[in-house]
Amino acid sequence: MSDSQRTFVLRLLVSAVVGGAALILMQVSFPPPDGVDVGRIFFWTAMTLALGAIPVRLPGGMVAFTTTAPLIAAVFDSALPNPFALCWIALLGTIELRDIRHQLPFLGTLYNRADFVLSTFAAFLAVRLTEGAVRPGDPLGAIAQIAIAGVAFSFVNLLLGVSIASLRTRTPFGRIWALGVGNVAIGVVALVPLGWLMSEIGQKVGLWAAFLFLVPLYLARFSFSKYAETRELFLGTIQALSQAIDAKDGFTRGHADRVSRIAGAIARELGLPEKQIDDIELAGLLHDIGKIGVEDRVLMKPSRLEPEEAELMRRHPIYGASILEPSAALRPLVPIVLHHHENFDGSGYPEGLRGDEIPIGSRIMIVADAYEAMTSDRIYRKAIGHERAMEQLNKYKGVQFDPRIVRALQEVVRKRGPAAFDVSDLPPINYETLAEVRRRLAREPVVRDAHAG
Ligand SMILES: [Fe+2]
User: Fold this and answer.
1) From ligand 1's centre to the CA of 52, what distance in Å?
2) CA 156, CA 212: separation in Å to the nearest integer?
3) Which of 237, 340, 323 is nearest to 287 (CA)?
4) CA of residue 358 to ligand 1 center, whole Å
5) Which of 68, 81, 329, 394 could form a disulfide with 33 if both were Cys (CB 3.0 to 4.6 A apart)?
6) How far is the centre of ligand 1, averaged over its atoms, from the C-alpha of 341 (Å)?
7) pLDDT per residue as tens digits for the range 189-228
8) How far apart are CA 411 and CA 421, in angstroms?
9) pTM score > 0.85 for this model?
10) What's the 180 CA to ligand 1 centre distance in angstroms?
11) How far is CA 191 from CA 69, 154, 200, in A?
């Protein structure tokens, strides 16, 4: 999608969602229902505000809340003049600190409010439509009704949330889903029965008892934030390791990072599933980790390698695989790293696999690695440029490279331009002296935020 198309779709989506929510709000508010219990509306709004104040930023750009529970509770609270009450609770209760501090663009604030109004209203409609089918005191019917309300709420809420995040950050819908939402979806769905229970207790015992639910809800929020933190920690560690390999290898900074991004783009062009793309990107960062096991006199030799030295160098994929093997999180990368020097015609190493026997991730890696090496400057030679690099890849397709992968790379570069992978996203490394590090840390002490979001 081109930039102007993207802007158009973005505006269309925002207008439709905000307009739809405004219509519903007007519809339920005029004329206002009789006998509005303002205290009760205030209570659920306050509960929603308390939980919305601490969002969790998920990997992939989405933000998760535990506000689902009080909103679902409001849907099931028969003492509320619904749908009037819950539309206003959804509108006002979901205002977050970022809105008050003007950290979000005004349209973003409007969109988020509208998203909650629409998803809560969808849950209300689901309950209203199924009401006739549920007999009082029938547990199975009640459970089915809770499930349907939850599905209606989550479907609208996540669909609108992921769509806007995807358009805004130019990240494919599937990736945001797989990296962010997919991993906390169970937690989000679990908030639905909790919301129903909160509502029942609020009606049968009293609102003060529903208030106690803040404790498990804060715990749920804590588990979301732990997931986000773990993922960030994992990626940061892999990137640090990847830069260490680049430094040891004498490559210019960011070689592995660029290989990773080129490989990821090819994998996406081929339509591979997001989880596999994620593995291929991680493998791109770590593909040469086995070079740690190759002696420096071989690794850093400026002249041509003797046959026995070349033999030592050819062991690096095996070393790499054995370094990654023991870690459960990195084990899916092992086959990709082990075979990243297998040639398409079977003349590569370490096992001489050919064609489709070579894992797809490795077939992508060898193309991305070669393309990156040819298109970036090295200490000992200048880049040969995109055109000549593609000539070389085309010359050796079917021999060293899988022709399908070379075609996919050509397509990626055609769409995104040869400059797309020029610059590494990684922050530059400054080799400071100890005195400089001390001075800098004294100036800007390291601030650690215990909670993401
Ligand atoms: Fe390698």
Assistant:
1) 47
2) 28
3) 340
4) 15
5) 81
6) 6
7) 778 899 999 999 999 998 899 999 888 888 888 887 887 8
8) 14
9) no
10) 31
11) 5, 10, 14
